[in-house]
Amino acid sequence: MNEIETATITSMEVAEMTEKTHYNLLRSIASYEKHFSQLNFELAEYFKLSTYLDEQEKERKCYNITKKGCEFIAHKMTGIKGTEFTVKYIERFHEMEQAISQQEVLEQKQEKKSFVGKLFHKKNKGEKKPVSKSKEKKKSKLDELKAQYKKVKPYIPMGWKYFKKLLKAIRFTDTRIVLDVGKEDAYEAAMLYGKVQAGLFNTIAILAGVFTVKLKKADVNCIFDEKKFGYDVHTLVRVRPSTLIAIGFCTGINFLKIYLSGRRKKKRVAKRRSKELAAKKNEVKATN
Protein backbone atom coordinates (compact mmCIF):
# COMPACT_ATOMS: atom_id res chain seq x y z
CA MET A 1 0.00 0.00 0.00
CA ASN A 2 1.56 3.33 -1.05
CA GLU A 3 1.59 6.66 0.80
CA ILE A 4 -1.37 8.07 -1.18
CA GLU A 5 -3.63 5.18 -0.12
CA THR A 6 -2.63 5.57 3.56
CA ALA A 7 -2.97 9.38 3.67
CA THR A 8 -5.11 10.71 6.54
CA ILE A 9 -6.35 13.96 8.04
CA THR A 10 -6.94 14.52 11.75
CA SER A 11 -10.34 14.53 13.40
CA MET A 12 -9.64 18.15 14.46
CA GLU A 13 -9.46 19.15 10.77
CA VAL A 14 -12.65 17.23 9.98
CA ALA A 15 -14.43 18.88 12.94
CA GLU A 16 -13.52 22.31 11.52
CA MET A 17 -14.65 21.30 8.02
CA THR A 18 -18.03 20.03 9.29
CA GLU A 19 -18.37 22.96 11.74
CA LYS A 20 -18.83 20.52 14.64
CA THR A 21 -17.07 20.50 17.99
CA HIS A 22 -14.29 17.94 18.24
CA TYR A 23 -16.08 16.38 21.23
CA ASN A 24 -19.27 15.76 19.21
CA LEU A 25 -17.29 14.28 16.29
CA LEU A 26 -15.51 11.87 18.67
CA ARG A 27 -18.92 10.80 20.03
CA SER A 28 -20.14 10.10 16.49
CA ILE A 29 -17.01 8.04 15.70
CA ALA A 30 -17.51 6.08 18.96
CA SER A 31 -21.02 5.14 17.80
CA TYR A 32 -19.63 4.09 14.38
CA GLU A 33 -17.04 1.96 16.19
CA LYS A 34 -19.79 -0.01 17.97
CA HIS A 35 -21.55 -0.65 14.65
CA PHE A 36 -18.28 -1.70 12.99
CA SER A 37 -17.50 -4.22 15.78
CA GLN A 38 -21.01 -5.69 15.54
CA LEU A 39 -20.62 -6.10 11.77
CA ASN A 40 -16.98 -7.34 11.99
CA PHE A 41 -15.74 -4.47 9.79
CA GLU A 42 -12.18 -3.11 10.05
CA LEU A 43 -12.37 0.31 11.76
CA ALA A 44 -8.70 1.17 11.00
CA GLU A 45 -9.49 1.42 7.27
CA TYR A 46 -11.71 4.41 8.12
CA PHE A 47 -10.70 5.77 11.56
CA LYS A 48 -7.26 5.27 13.17
CA LEU A 49 -7.02 6.00 16.90
CA SER A 50 -4.33 8.55 17.79
CA THR A 51 -3.47 11.32 20.28
CA TYR A 52 -2.36 14.96 20.20
CA LEU A 53 -1.08 17.58 22.65
CA ASP A 54 -3.42 20.47 23.44
CA GLU A 55 -2.38 24.05 24.28
CA GLN A 56 -1.64 22.99 27.89
CA GLU A 57 0.57 20.15 26.51
CA LYS A 58 -1.89 17.51 27.76
CA GLU A 59 -2.36 14.36 25.71
CA ARG A 60 -5.85 14.15 24.18
CA LYS A 61 -7.64 11.50 22.14
CA CYS A 62 -8.19 12.00 18.40
CA TYR A 63 -8.45 10.01 15.17
CA ASN A 64 -6.54 10.00 11.90
CA ILE A 65 -9.30 9.74 9.30
CA THR A 66 -8.71 8.13 5.90
CA LYS A 67 -10.37 9.14 2.64
CA LYS A 68 -12.83 6.26 3.18
CA GLY A 69 -13.65 7.67 6.62
CA CYS A 70 -14.33 11.12 5.15
CA GLU A 71 -16.62 9.55 2.53
CA PHE A 72 -18.41 7.69 5.32
CA ILE A 73 -18.98 10.94 7.29
CA ALA A 74 -20.08 12.78 4.11
CA HIS A 75 -22.76 10.12 3.49
CA LYS A 76 -24.18 10.90 6.94
CA MET A 77 -24.58 14.60 6.04
CA THR A 78 -27.25 16.14 3.80
CA GLY A 79 -27.91 19.43 2.02
CA ILE A 80 -25.37 22.21 1.47
CA LYS A 81 -23.37 21.18 4.58
CA GLY A 82 -22.77 17.75 3.08
CA THR A 83 -21.76 19.31 -0.26
CA GLU A 84 -19.44 21.79 1.49
CA PHE A 85 -17.69 19.06 3.51
CA THR A 86 -17.34 16.82 0.44
CA VAL A 87 -15.66 19.61 -1.55
CA LYS A 88 -13.33 20.46 1.36
CA TYR A 89 -12.10 16.93 2.06
CA ILE A 90 -11.66 16.14 -1.66
CA GLU A 91 -9.54 19.30 -2.08
CA ARG A 92 -7.50 18.42 1.05
CA PHE A 93 -6.72 14.86 -0.10
CA HIS A 94 -5.98 16.13 -3.61
CA GLU A 95 -3.36 18.51 -2.15
CA MET A 96 -1.78 15.66 -0.17
CA GLU A 97 -1.76 13.35 -3.20
CA GLN A 98 -0.04 16.03 -5.30
CA ALA A 99 2.59 16.63 -2.59
CA ILE A 100 3.28 12.87 -2.25
CA SER A 101 3.51 12.43 -6.05
CA GLN A 102 5.95 15.36 -6.35
CA GLN A 103 8.08 13.90 -3.53
CA GLU A 104 8.16 10.51 -5.24
CA VAL A 105 9.25 12.12 -8.53
CA LEU A 106 12.05 14.04 -6.74
CA GLU A 107 13.25 10.87 -5.00
CA GLN A 108 13.33 8.99 -8.32
CA LYS A 109 15.34 11.81 -9.94
CA GLN A 110 17.81 11.81 -7.04
CA GLU A 111 18.23 8.03 -7.28
CA LYS A 112 18.93 8.31 -11.02
CA LYS A 113 21.48 11.08 -10.46
CA SER A 114 23.30 9.11 -7.75
CA PHE A 115 23.33 5.99 -9.94
CA VAL A 116 24.74 7.90 -12.94
CA GLY A 117 27.27 9.59 -10.68
CA LYS A 118 28.52 6.23 -9.40
CA LEU A 119 28.90 4.95 -12.98
CA PHE A 120 30.79 7.90 -14.47
CA HIS A 121 32.61 9.50 -11.55
CA LYS A 122 35.48 7.88 -9.68
CA LYS A 123 36.43 9.80 -6.61
CA ASN A 124 39.90 9.44 -5.11
CA LYS A 125 40.15 8.69 -1.40
CA GLY A 126 40.54 11.81 0.69
CA GLU A 127 39.56 14.03 -2.24
CA LYS A 128 37.26 16.90 -1.24
CA LYS A 129 35.43 19.22 -3.57
CA PRO A 130 36.09 22.88 -2.88
CA VAL A 131 32.98 24.65 -1.63
CA SER A 132 32.26 27.81 -3.60
CA LYS A 133 31.43 31.13 -1.91
CA SER A 134 28.01 31.22 -3.56
CA LYS A 135 27.14 27.83 -2.01
CA GLU A 136 28.34 29.01 1.39
CA LYS A 137 26.12 32.10 1.10
CA LYS A 138 23.16 29.93 0.10
CA LYS A 139 23.75 27.69 3.13
CA SER A 140 23.94 30.66 5.48
CA LYS A 141 20.72 32.10 4.01
CA LEU A 142 19.00 28.72 4.39
CA ASP A 143 20.15 28.52 8.01
CA GLU A 144 18.77 32.01 8.64
CA LEU A 145 15.44 31.09 7.05
CA LYS A 146 15.25 27.88 9.11
CA ALA A 147 15.94 29.84 12.31
CA GLN A 148 13.25 32.37 11.43
CA TYR A 149 10.79 29.58 10.58
CA LYS A 150 11.42 27.90 13.96
CA LYS A 151 10.52 31.18 15.69
CA VAL A 152 7.32 31.62 13.68
CA LYS A 153 6.27 27.92 13.58
CA PRO A 154 4.37 27.84 16.94
CA TYR A 155 2.18 30.75 15.78
CA ILE A 156 1.21 29.30 12.38
CA PRO A 157 -1.66 26.93 13.46
CA MET A 158 -3.27 29.56 15.68
CA GLY A 159 -2.80 32.28 13.06
CA TRP A 160 -4.36 30.09 10.36
CA LYS A 161 -7.31 29.28 12.66
CA TYR A 162 -8.14 32.93 13.31
CA PHE A 163 -7.47 33.91 9.70
CA LYS A 164 -10.21 31.43 8.67
CA LYS A 165 -12.49 32.95 11.31
CA LEU A 166 -11.72 36.38 9.89
CA LEU A 167 -12.74 35.21 6.41
CA LYS A 168 -15.91 33.68 7.87
CA ALA A 169 -16.72 37.09 9.37
CA ILE A 170 -17.05 38.46 5.80
CA ARG A 171 -20.74 37.94 4.98
CA PHE A 172 -22.26 37.89 1.50
CA THR A 173 -25.97 38.53 2.11
CA ASP A 174 -28.98 38.80 -0.19
CA THR A 175 -27.02 36.98 -2.91
CA ARG A 176 -28.85 36.47 -6.21
CA ILE A 177 -27.19 34.84 -9.23
CA VAL A 178 -28.97 34.35 -12.56
CA LEU A 179 -27.08 33.02 -15.60
CA ASP A 180 -28.39 32.84 -19.17
CA VAL A 181 -26.66 30.30 -21.43
CA GLY A 182 -27.61 29.19 -24.91
CA LYS A 183 -26.52 27.59 -28.17
CA GLU A 184 -28.18 27.40 -31.56
CA ASP A 185 -28.02 23.58 -31.41
CA ALA A 186 -30.36 22.09 -28.74
CA TYR A 187 -27.94 19.29 -27.75
CA GLU A 188 -25.00 21.68 -27.34
CA ALA A 189 -27.24 24.06 -25.36
CA ALA A 190 -28.25 21.27 -22.96
CA MET A 191 -24.60 20.16 -22.48
CA LEU A 192 -23.51 23.76 -21.82
CA TYR A 193 -26.38 24.19 -19.35
CA GLY A 194 -25.28 21.11 -17.38
CA LYS A 195 -21.63 22.23 -17.22
CA VAL A 196 -22.49 25.80 -16.17
CA GLN A 197 -24.93 24.63 -13.50
CA ALA A 198 -22.41 22.18 -12.01
CA GLY A 199 -19.68 24.84 -12.05
CA LEU A 200 -21.95 27.42 -10.45
CA PHE A 201 -23.01 25.27 -7.50
CA ASN A 202 -19.51 23.89 -6.94
CA THR A 203 -18.19 27.47 -6.84
CA ILE A 204 -20.91 28.49 -4.37
CA ALA A 205 -20.04 25.51 -2.14
CA ILE A 206 -16.33 26.47 -2.13
CA LEU A 207 -17.12 30.13 -1.35
CA ALA A 208 -19.50 29.04 1.43
CA GLY A 209 -16.63 27.06 2.96
CA VAL A 210 -14.44 30.17 3.10
CA PHE A 211 -16.92 33.02 3.67
CA THR A 212 -20.43 33.28 5.12
CA VAL A 213 -22.79 33.18 2.14
CA LYS A 214 -26.57 33.67 2.37
CA LEU A 215 -27.99 32.64 -0.97
CA LYS A 216 -31.46 33.83 -1.96
CA LYS A 217 -31.48 32.75 -5.57
CA ALA A 218 -29.22 30.81 -7.95
CA ASP A 219 -30.62 29.91 -11.36
CA VAL A 220 -29.30 28.93 -14.78
CA ASN A 221 -31.61 29.63 -17.72
CA CYS A 222 -31.11 27.54 -20.87
CA ILE A 223 -31.84 29.14 -24.26
CA PHE A 224 -32.10 26.73 -27.19
CA ASP A 225 -32.39 28.99 -30.23
CA GLU A 226 -29.46 31.45 -29.91
CA LYS A 227 -25.85 31.60 -28.83
CA LYS A 228 -25.79 33.54 -25.58
CA PHE A 229 -24.03 33.92 -22.26
CA GLY A 230 -25.34 36.53 -19.84
CA TYR A 231 -25.37 37.01 -16.10
CA ASP A 232 -27.03 39.05 -13.38
CA VAL A 233 -25.27 38.93 -10.00
CA HIS A 234 -26.28 40.88 -6.92
CA THR A 235 -24.86 40.63 -3.39
CA LEU A 236 -24.15 42.74 -0.31
CA VAL A 237 -20.81 42.39 1.50
CA ARG A 238 -20.96 43.07 5.23
CA VAL A 239 -18.45 42.88 8.06
CA ARG A 240 -19.25 43.58 11.71
CA PRO A 241 -16.57 45.72 13.38
CA SER A 242 -17.30 44.03 16.74
CA THR A 243 -16.47 40.64 15.19
CA LEU A 244 -13.16 41.93 13.82
CA ILE A 245 -12.27 43.40 17.23
CA ALA A 246 -13.14 40.12 18.98
CA ILE A 247 -11.06 38.07 16.52
CA GLY A 248 -8.12 40.47 16.87
CA PHE A 249 -8.35 40.34 20.68
CA CYS A 250 -8.52 36.51 20.78
CA THR A 251 -5.61 36.28 18.32
CA GLY A 252 -3.48 38.59 20.48
CA ILE A 253 -4.29 36.69 23.71
CA ASN A 254 -3.50 33.30 22.14
CA PHE A 255 -0.26 34.58 20.58
CA LEU A 256 0.75 35.92 24.01
CA LYS A 257 0.04 32.50 25.57
CA ILE A 258 2.22 30.78 22.95
CA TYR A 259 5.00 33.34 23.48
CA LEU A 260 4.95 32.91 27.28
CA SER A 261 4.85 29.09 27.08
CA GLY A 262 7.86 29.27 24.69
CA ARG A 263 9.77 31.40 27.17
CA ARG A 264 8.95 28.96 30.00
CA LYS A 265 10.23 26.05 27.89
CA LYS A 266 13.48 27.89 27.15
CA LYS A 267 13.97 28.59 30.87
CA ARG A 268 13.37 24.93 31.75
CA VAL A 269 15.88 23.81 29.09
CA ALA A 270 18.44 26.34 30.34
CA LYS A 271 18.00 25.15 33.96
CA ARG A 272 18.36 21.52 32.90
CA ARG A 273 21.56 22.28 30.98
CA SER A 274 23.03 24.25 33.89
CA LYS A 275 22.27 21.32 36.24
CA GLU A 276 23.91 18.88 33.83
CA LEU A 277 26.99 21.09 33.56
CA ALA A 278 27.18 21.42 37.34
CA ALA A 279 26.86 17.64 37.72
CA LYS A 280 29.67 17.08 35.19
CA LYS A 281 31.91 19.59 37.02
CA ASN A 282 31.28 17.80 40.32
CA GLU A 283 32.15 14.46 38.69
CA VAL A 284 35.43 15.90 37.38
CA LYS A 285 36.27 17.31 40.85
CA ALA A 286 35.45 13.98 42.49
CA THR A 287 37.72 12.03 40.08
CA ASN A 288 40.57 14.52 40.68
Describe the protein's architecture and organization.
This protein has 288 residues and is α+β, with helices and mostly antiparallel strands. Helix content is 64%, strand content 18%. The chain has eight helices and six strands; from the N terminus they run E-H-H-E-E-H-H-H-H-E-H-E-E-H. The protein has helices at residues 11-18, 22-39, 67-76, 79-120, 133-152, 156-169, 186-210, 241-287; strands at residues 8-10, 47-53, 59-66, 171-182, 212-223, 228-238. The strands form two sheets. The protein has a three-stranded antiparallel beta sheet with strand order 1-3-2. It has a three-stranded mixed beta sheet with strand order 5-4-6. Helix 6 packs antiparallel against helix 8 (241-287). It is extended and about 100 Å long. The protein starts with 7 loop residues before the first strand and ends with a helix.
